[in-house]
Amino acid sequence: MQAAPPVRATAIPSFSTALRAVESLLMSSGQRTARRNAWTSVLEDRRRAKDRVETQRVVEQSLSVRP
Asked: What is the pTM of this model?
């Protein structure tokens, strides 16, 4: 009986990993950094907006509870 050959598990790259690979081929380093910084800013703005809405909801709720 022969031993089975070793199995090599190669992870399939995620979509974002594939995009980063294409991005690295098409853009210079500075452009990639600027793009990522811009996207980070967008995500941070969204988080702050979400926090602002939640805070407004809590304030309005606390004001309506008072007699």
From this structure: 0.53
